[in-house]
Specification:
This protein is of the alpha/beta class. It contains 13 helices and ten strands. The C terminus is likely disordered. The structure holds flavin mononucleotide. Flavin mononucleotide binds next to strand 4.
C-alpha cells in the first residue's frame, strides 16, 4: 500500500492512543508486524509545545519511517503552524484528529466535535494541506461516523476531505456520542470506502485475525487500524498478517519471547521517560501484558508497589520465568475491554 511517496510494508496500522502509543510502543508494534503507526495526538497550541509531554510526543529518534504525527486543534492557522512545527521535527505524514470524543478536546471543538462543524473542519483541512504540501508531506484524517446515530455525516465529510487534498481517511465505526460504548459498525466505513478514490482505513473493535478478515472483506477498506487489542498484545499484528496471508492461525508466542519483548519495551520506555516517571507509566503496559495470564492479577498488585526500574524489570522477568515452567506458550488471550478512562489528553 502506498501513502504519498511511502510504500507501507503492510496494511495493518497501530491506532494513535494518547498515553499509550509513544515511540517505544510504536516501535514494538512495528517490530511485531504493524506496517504503520501514528503518534499520540500533539496539541496545536503553541504555548504547550515546549512542555515535557509534547516534546516527548514529538521525539521520533530511531523510529522507522514514515513518521506520522497526529495533530489536534480548532484554529486553522494554529493547525497549519502545528503541521509545519512537526514537519520541521521529522514528521513525514500529518494526521488530523477528528475522531477523539474526549471532553478536554471536544469542549473546545476539536477532535470528533469538528464533525458537527463541517465548514470549520474543511478550513482546518485546507490550512493543514496548504502548510504540508510544499514539504511533500501527505495529510491524513481520522474521524468517526458522525456526531450521533441520527447524524452520521462521515461520507459527506470524507468526500470534502478528499476534495481538500487529504491522502487517506480512517474511520472509527462509532459516533462521537457513543464514546467507546456499544459496538463499532462497519456499514458507514464501507460507505466511505465506496464513495472515495483515496485510501480508507477501517477502525474499531478489531481484536482478532478472524475479525480483521471480516472487516476487510465487509468494508473493502485498504487497511485496518488496531488500538486497544494491541495493548499488552503487540504481536496481534503478526497474528493478523499471518492469518490474512495464509488463512491459518499463528500459534501464540512462547512465554520466553513475550517476556523478552516486554522487558525490551520496558528498557526503551525508561529511556524515554526516565526512572521516576518511567517506572510508573510502565505499570499500565505490564498490567495489560499480564491481564489475561494465569496469576497475572495477583502479580499486578504486587508490581504496582515497586518504585524503581531495576526491581520492576527483575520482578517481571522472574514472574515470566515461573510462568514459562508451566506454559511454554502463552494461552490464547481474550480481547480487552474498552478503557476510555485511560484517555489522557493534556498536551
Ligand atoms: C487510551 C486511548 C487513547 C486514544 N487516543 C487517541 C488519540 O490521541 N487520537 C485519536 O485519533 N484517537 C485516539 N484514540 C482512539 C483510537 O485511535 C481508536 O480509534 C479507538 O480506540 C478504536 O479502535 P480500537 O477498537 O481498535 O481500540 C484513543 C483510544 C484509547 C483507548
Amino acid at each position: 500500500m502506498k501513502l504519498g511517496a511511502f510504500e507501507l510494508p503492510n496494511r495493518l496500522f497501530v491506532a494513535p492512543m494518547a498515553g499509550v502509543t509513544d515511540r517505544p510502543f510504536r516501535q514494538l508494534c512495528r517490530r511485531l508486524g504493524a506496517g504503520y503507526a501514528v503518534s499520540e495526538m500533539v496539541t496545536s497550541q503553541r504555548a504547550l509545545w515546549s512542555s515535557l509531554k509534547t516534546s516527548r510526543r514529538a521525539d521520533h529518534a530511531g523510529e522507522p519511517g514514515p513518521i506520522a504525527v497526529q495533530i489536534a486543534g480548532v484554529d486553522p492557522r494554529e493547525m497549519a503552524d502545528a503541521a509545519r512545527y512537526n514537519i520541521d521535527r521529522g514528521a513525514q505524514i500529518i494526521d488530523i484528529n477528528m475522531g477523539c470524543p474526549a471532553k478536554k478536546v471536544c469542549n473546545v471543538w476539536a477532535g470528533s466535535a469538528l464533525m458537527s462543524n463541517v465548514p470549520l473542519a474543511v478550513r482546518i483541512i485546507e490550512a493543514v494541506v496548504a502548510a504540508s504540501g510544499p514539504h511533500n508531506v501527505p495529510v491524513t484524517l481520522k474521524m468517526r461516523t458522525g456526531r450521533s446515530t441520527g447524524e452520521k455525516n462521515a461520507v459527506a465529510m470524507a468526500r470534502m476531505a478528499e476534495q481538500a487534498g487529504v491522502a487517506m481517511v480512517t474511520v472509527h465505526g462509532r459516533t462521537r456520542e457513543q464514546g467507546f460504548k456499544g459496538l463499532a459498525e462497519y456499514d458507514t466505513v464501507a460507505a466511505v470506502k465506496a464513495a472515495l478514490g483515496i485510501a480508507v482505513v477501517a477502525n474499531g473493535d478489531i481484536d482478532s485475525p478472524e475479525k480483521a478478515r471480516l472487516v476487510l472483506d465487509y468494508t473493502r477498506a485498504d487497511a485496518l487500524m488496531i488500538g486497544r487489542a494491541a495493548q499488552g498484545r503487540p504481536w496481534i499484528f503478526r497474528e493478523i498478517a499471518h492469518y490474512l496471508a495464509t488463512g491459518q492461525t499463528l500459534a501464540p508466542p512462547t512465554t520466553a519471547d513475550a517476556a523478552a519483548w516486554l522487558t525490551e519495551h520496558l528498557q526503551d520506555h525508561y529511556g524515554l521517560y526516565g526512572e521516576v516517571s518511567g517506572v510508573r507509566s510502565a505499570r499500565k503496559h505490564i498490567g495489560w501484558a499480564l491481564r489475561e495470564l494465569p496469576g497475572g492479577e495477583a502479580f499486578r498488585a504486587e508490581m504496582n508497589r515497586i518504585d524503581d526500574c531495576r526491581t520492576q524489570v527483575s520482578a517481571v522477568t522472574d514472574w515470566f520465568a515461573r510462568l514459562a515452567e508451566q506454559h511454554e506458550r502463552l494461552p490464547r488471550l481474550a480481547a480487552p475491554a474498552a478503557n476510555d478512562d485511560l484517555i489522557e489528553l493534556t498536551a
